[in-house]
Amino acid sequence: MKRNTVKLILLSIGYLAMVYLIWPDNVYAMHIMEGFLPFNWAAFWMAVMLPFVIWGMRSIRKTVSDSASLKMLLAMAGAFAFVLSAMKIPSVTGSCSHPTGVGLGAILFGPTPMTVLGMIVLIFQALLLAHGGLTTLGANTFSMAIVGPFVSYGIYKGLQKLRAPRWLSIFLAATLGDLMTYVTTSFQLALAFPDPSGGVWGSALKFMGIFAFTQVPLAISEGLLTVMVFNLLVAYSRNELIALSVFRADEWQKISPSKTEVKA
Amino acid sequence: MKLVWKNVILGILVIGLAFGPLVFAHNAKFAGADDQAGEAISTIDANYQPWFKPLWEPPSGEIESFLFALQAALGSGMVFYYLGYVKGKHTAAKAKKG
């Protein structure tokens, strides 16, 4: 245990040192801005986005049609993404970025409902804040509201199957979903702007250096916040979580409502 | 450990992660630096011109931060409304039982 702590501290210091050596200047890390994807790529990502949005709307209708309490939980998951996207948090690279907040909803409701909710957040920011953009909506939705939720959902379900502790499954699902969003953004930019010498890969590495490294601490923050909210949901919204089959069957027995004392 | 304390510890970690960079990298500008995105792209493709402009931009930094604060307030309003609601419901159900 102690040795692990030391390792962790050394790793953090190494990470910080590396970040300062390689990226001493301010770098940006956010969604792709309005007009910054060539028309064909903008149209391509828009087309990729559409089926997921339709799938998500169907999934939402199915989930909430017969339960008012699930409707409220879904609204809360959307609101969580809304508030986290508004938080531009400083990162070790000396610039700011924001978490995405879609992992929580993906764990609860599956990935596609978050496609719809994430897209709404992105439209709000594009119209009112000139953050992201309407032409880049498809690409940004793909990274934040399709790849992110699918990664989160896949990791959560996979780790649950491997019987990892629940807090760890949730933490990793939310953290890696957030991180993969920005890795995806890097590739989207790289595909549209391949490096003259290094090609798509060279360009992707360049953008990833900018995006992914800034995002690491924020992704960890998002993971921790998601665990916090999830702890509260386990304590107070157990029936909804069971209805959404978020728990494994044996876990469900362990925390069945017959126990009056709340264990999170 | 009680739920409250678990969440307090997690909360402190989050705050540390958010404010740590301000201490460690106190020389950095922490710009939202959307303009620098253009620079990064133009080092790769110098001729690229953005072909679409935002329909509306917040006229000043104050308006922008107002809108971001509004976004955060609306979001956290809903999150905590929900958490308060289910906690109240839970407590009421427990009181009825016991």
Question: Which architecture name of chain A does CATH use?
Answer: Orthogonal Bundle
> Overall mean pLDDT score of chain B?
85
Uncertain regions spanning at least 5 consecutive residues of chain B: none
Unreliable stretches of chain A (pLDDT < 50, length at least 5) are 23-29, 258-264
Main β sheet profile of chain A: 2 strands, antiparallel
Strand content of chain B: under 5%
Count of DSSP E strands of chain B?
Answer: 0
Order of helices and strands of chain B: HHH
Number of H- or I-type helical stretches of chain B: 3
Describe the structure using short key phrases.
A: 264 residues, mainly alpha, two-stranded antiparallel sheet, 10 helices, 2% strand, globular, disordered C terminus, B: 98 residues, 2 domains, 71% helix, elongated
Helix and strand topology:
The complex is a heterodimer of chains A (264) and B (98).
Chain A: H1 2-22, H2 39-64, H3 68-86, E1 89-90, E2 96-97, H4 103-109, H5 111-129, H6 137-161, H7 166-192, H8 199-236, H9 238-243, H10 249-254
Antiparallel strand pairs in A: 1-2
Helix pairs in contact in A: 2-5, 2-6, 3-4, 3-5, 4-5, 4-6, 5-6, 6-7, 7-8
Chain B: H1 3-24, H2 34-44, H3 61-97
Characterise this structure.
The complex is a heterodimer of chains A (264) and B (98). Chain A is mainly alpha-helical and 264 residues long. Chain A has a single domain (2-254), classed as Arp2/3 complex 21 kDa subunit ARPC3, CATH 1.10.1760.20. Helices cover 73% and strands 2% of the residues of chain A. Chain A is built from ten helices and two strands. Chain A has helices spanning 2-22, 39-64, 68-86, 103-109, 111-129, 137-161, 166-192, 199-236, 238-243, 249-254, and strands at 89-90, 96-97. A two-stranded antiparallel sheet of chain A has the order 1-2. The longest helix of chain A is centred in the last third of the chain and has 38 residues, at 199-236. Chain A starts with a helix and ends in a 10-residue tail after the last helix. Residues 23-29 and 258-264 of chain A have low confidence and may be disordered. Chain B has two domains: 1-52; 59-98. Chain B has three helices and no strands. With 98 residues, chain B is mainly alpha-helical. The model of chain B has no long low-confidence stretch (mean pLDDT 85). Classes of the chains: A mainly alpha (264), B mainly alpha (98).
